[in-house]
Amino acid sequence: MDLQLSDEHRMIRDMARDFAQNEIAPIATHYDETGEFPAETIRKMGAQGFMGIAVPEEYGGVGMDTLAYVLTLVEISKADASHGTIMSVCNSLFCYGLLRYGTQEQKEKYLRAVASGQAIGAYALTEPQSGSDAGNIRVTADLSPDGNHYVINGTKSWISSGPAARYIVVFAQSDPDAKPRYRGVSAFVIDAEQAGFSCGKTEPKLGIRASATCEIHFEDYKCPVENRIGEEGDGFKIAMSVLDAGRIGIASQALGIAEAAYEASLVYARERQAFGQEIGHFQMIQQKLADMKCRIEASRLLIYQAALAKDEAKKTGARYTLESSMAKLYASETAMLVTTQAIQIHGGMGYSKELPIERYFRDAKVTEIYEGTSEIQRLVIARMETGLR
Ligand code: COS
């Protein structure tokens, strides 16, 4: 694995860092406290090209690779994980799926709008009864007798960016008799401004509070046949392969959160005095810092490996499920460990809302849950390694 960043990679990372520190970091606390959606900075990120980094320029993106996306997302998440969530969903869960499986017309209409930052994209897989058991989908998509459209009915839950999204990739059962059930799932791209779509309750969340998350409802929503992504019954595999890409994004978000917490801890360890000296002199603090640093750098390597595997897969068609799950598992558990230790190092100040440390801790937790819990990542890794299901 070549660990040297190219000039181009360094350039986009530095640009993202400047943007994140100047535009996002100063407002992060406000949006965390209010839970408002940060529409203005998201619009600016769209204008910078941050919503379609690995999308070719012909479809409104920046045309860079997955490593460029990772570097950018780490910087954004370091300033504020909520902005990181919105960015990750647009890039990975929406754009990647359409780029890989969409028709030319779908790419022109929907991919371009989201990749160029003109509209927000979302991804709707989870339902009240199906989180980890993603194949157990109850939302239905019935083909009309004239074969022109599907009628979609049901509820999806925990939809990141749901209240703000214009276009959403939705997974629904188009063949309820299929055995196993996941073989009856199809994927669609829907327009939230069409009749039959509505947003339900917004989730009050522990962390990533500025990234709006809600239920969405379909009531006789008419989805034209040309909005189906892939063939009928391909939906579950499309959902899973898109999550392979998405998990690299969440791993990057987790790394950004961990870096922010670690850097704050370093500064504090150099400055805070106790027992007549800076607390960084104490071995118990040193041990924490050393473990945090090692976990962060190991996460980075796993994420870069997954990013390279994903780009390689474009040529070979191979799956990078293993690399992606390893990166997500390790980076998210690192984010939780590092933010927990960061609070400990900061003591009372870490527990106070006067510093962002407690926000990092709250934001880190979701990375062990969404886009596949740590338990699901372990299951995926073990299945890939043993070949057993
Ligand atoms: N890429 C392509 N195809 C995949 C795939 C992937 N990453 N993962 C599974 N598939 C395919 C399998 O090859 C299998 O295909 P066949 O029908 O040809 O055999 C099919 O999908 C079913 O796979 P599997 O039997 O492994 O499905 P399970 O029901 O056992 O579920 C888990 C697998 C649990 C791993 C899956 O449901 C999962 O990832 N759950 C978590 C969902 C999630 O992350 N939710 C968060 C939503 S976004 S916030």
Textual characterization of the structure:
With 389 residues, this protein is of the alpha+beta class. The protein has three domains: 7-119, Acyl-CoA dehydrogenase/oxidase, N-terminal domain (Butyryl-Coa Dehydrogenase, subunit A, domain 1, Orthogonal Bundle), CATH 1.10.540.10; 122-233, Butyryl-CoA Dehydrogenase, subunit A, domain 2, CATH 2.40.110.10; 236-386, Butyryl-CoA Dehydrogenase, subunit A, domain 3 (Up-down Bundle), CATH 1.20.140. The chain has twelve helices and ten strands. The protein has helices at residues 7-24, 28-34, 39-47, 66-79, 81-101, 104-115, 235-271, 283-316, 321-346, 348-351, 357-365, 374-386, and strands at residues 121-124, 140-143, 149-160, 167-173, 185-191, 197-202, 213-224, 228-229, 273-274, 277-278. A hairpin with a 5-residue loop joins strand 2 (140-143) and strand 3. Helix 5 (81-101) runs antiparallel to helix 7 and helix 9 runs antiparallel to helix 12. The relative contact order is 0.11. The mean pLDDT is 97. Bound molecules: coenzyme a persulfide. Coenzyme a persulfide binds at residues 125-126, 131-132, 134-135, 182, 236-237, 240-241, 243-244, 319, 321, 370-372, 376, 379-380, 389. Coenzyme a persulfide (COS) binds next to helix 7 and helix 12.
